Every structure is written in C-alpha cells, then in structure tokens.
Amino acid sequence: MATTVIVGSGIIGIATAYYLCEHQPGWSIHVVDSSTELFASASGYAGGFIAKDWFPPELASLGALSFEEHERLAEKYDGHEKWAYAKSVTVNYEPPRRKANGPGGEDWLREGGSRVDLVAEKRDVEDGNSPPWLRRVKGDAVSVVDNAEGTAVLDPIRLCQFLLGRCRAAGVRFHHPAVVLNVGPDCHDELSHVRIGFTDCSSETEIPATRIYARPNGDIWLGGVNSAIPLPPLATAAKPMRGPLEKLKATARQLIKSEGELEVVRTGLCFRPVTQRGTPYVTRVEDVDLRQGYRTRKGADGGVFVAAGHGPWGISLSLGTGKVMAEMMQGRELSADISGLGYLP
C-alpha cells in the first residue's frame, strides 16, 4: 500500500483525505500543514455558498458532482445540524441608482466578479418574498436567481471539523505545524521546477459587490470588501484590516434590519488563490514535467498530484475535488470529467 502525503490541510486537502480513507488504511495517509491552527483562512472563514451549475464548461461536471456530494453527506450525517447545511433561495439585490461597474462575461471568476450577472433567468420578487432580514428602501430591486434548487449554504469551519473528525477516527495522521516543502508563490526549492503555470495567490482583487449569506441558525455572513495585500507566510497571520472591516460593518447596518446594534460573531481574512485562466488545476503532474529526472511509480502506486486555484469556489468545489483527487490517486474511475482542468507546461 502506497503512502500518501497531502501538503495543505484546508478544506480541499481534508476532503481528499476523507475520500482516500474510504479505500485505503487511514494510517497510510499523512496530512501536513505549516500552521499551528487548522482552517485559519478561507476554509474556516469563507461564506459557505455552494452552487450546482454556476460554472464554465470546464468546471460544469466537477461543480455538479460537488453539489451532489454536499447534499449526500448532509443527508447521511445530519449536516443541517452539524455544519448548518441548507438549501438556499438566492437573490440579487440592487440598491437605488446602482452603477454596473463590476466585471462580467467569462472573466467573472478570474476577476472576482459576480456570477449573478451572468444568470440568464432572474425574476423580480414582491416585498413579502424578500429575505425577512433585508432592509428594503424605495427604488431598490430584488430578483430571484435560484429558487433553492441549485444553491445552498453551510458553515465551512464546521464542515472542516466534521471531515477532520472522520479522518482522525479512520487513523489519518496530521502533522502541524510542519513543513515538507515550500510550495508558496516564492518557492525556489525542489518543487519550483514543476511547471503548472502561474497561480496568483499573492493578492486579492478589489471586489465591490458585497456577498450576504443567511445561515439556518440566524447568523448572517458578509464579505467581499477587500484589497491587494501581500500573502502572509502562515495562514494564522492573516488578520482583517480595520478600514475594510469598518466599511463592511457599515454595509451590514444599511442592509440588515435590527432593533439594536448588530453583534459581530467572528471576523476573518480569506486568501483565495486563482489561476490566470480562471479555473483550478486538478490533475496529475506528468514525469516529463518533473526536473532532475524524477520518476514516479505508475498508476495507484505513486505520482505527484495538484488541486489548487479554486478562487472563490473552494468551498463549493471542495467535496467534488476531494473525491476526484482520491479516485485519480487510487487509480479508480473518475466521477467527474476534469479533462479541462489540466495544465500547460
């Protein structure tokens, strides 16, 4: 039995370990992370919005699989209670005299724009059908984007903790803080020669459109106001900036009904690596692209694999990516078509 080492214990790494241990002993799987605290960035603080078919053709199959896996695990393990999973009616809110200055077209994922602008069918809703917590004002507009058929929400940190618990129960070994290799944006070591293209994980693009997700327990998540800042060496060093955070709080006071001051439960800063092409790499690295004559064992006996660059869709695509990665690493038939998610050396 081959030993598997996963570098990075975010939601995609932990999901890969979860699916791997369904078909191999947990003790043969090692997960390595450089931070003392797991899930300290996007995997623990993201909004948790998931979609079934909001993706370009290259991601359509993986997106559908992942959505199905989110629903399947929630039904099997009471995800509604354990990680606040719920189908979600998705609406687009336009304040009065809104200026459409965000990116559109096929660049929406790469540039951080809203996929809502590309949804073909939207319909206006009456005031009585608006989210009950939304503060309506004269001249605004609310349109339905998805009627809870293809979108859902969950709490990422609780899903990660559930997957972590399942992995530990199966015997998966976790090593943190620990560093196997530096595979960050400035790496100059053993993996710096693996030519998988450029992944911009050093900064975030300004995103003017605020995202708001209501969870079943009454918590309301807001995000989307950020700016280009350097990527810290460790996830635990990512701290919210005062200016954007205050701006987000002001937005919350404008949009959310409340008889008193809103309570801030948690704050966080998320880094979301995106590729230049706008879609992630989910692939096996061929031996020809490994320098110094490195050769890996064929099939399920070895290999170097990459799953990175999911951008704003890491939570949504996490389970599908983990499942397909496990299948690919174990030499099993793939549950989704990822032929468009390889790389150009």
UniProtKB/TrEMBL annotation:
<protein>
    <recommendedName>
        <fullName>FAD dependent oxidoreductase domain-containing protein</fullName>
    </recommendedName>
</protein>
<dbReference type="GO" id="GO:0005770">
    <property type="term" value="C:late endosome"/>
</dbReference>
<dbReference type="Pfam" id="PF01266">
    <property type="entry name" value="DAO"/>
</dbReference>
<feature type="domain" description="FAD dependent oxidoreductase">
    <location>
        <begin position="205"/>
        <end position="328"/>
    </location>
</feature>
<dbReference type="GO" id="GO:0042147">
    <property type="term" value="P:retrograde transport, endosome to Golgi"/>
</dbReference>
<dbReference type="GO" id="GO:0005829">
    <property type="term" value="C:cytosol"/>
</dbReference>
<feature type="domain" description="FAD dependent oxidoreductase">
    <location>
        <begin position="5"/>
        <end position="184"/>
    </location>
</feature>
<dbReference type="InterPro" id="IPR006076">
    <property type="entry name" value="FAD-dep_OxRdtase"/>
</dbReference>
<dbReference type="InterPro" id="IPR036188">
    <property type="entry name" value="FAD/NAD-bd_sf"/>
</dbReference>
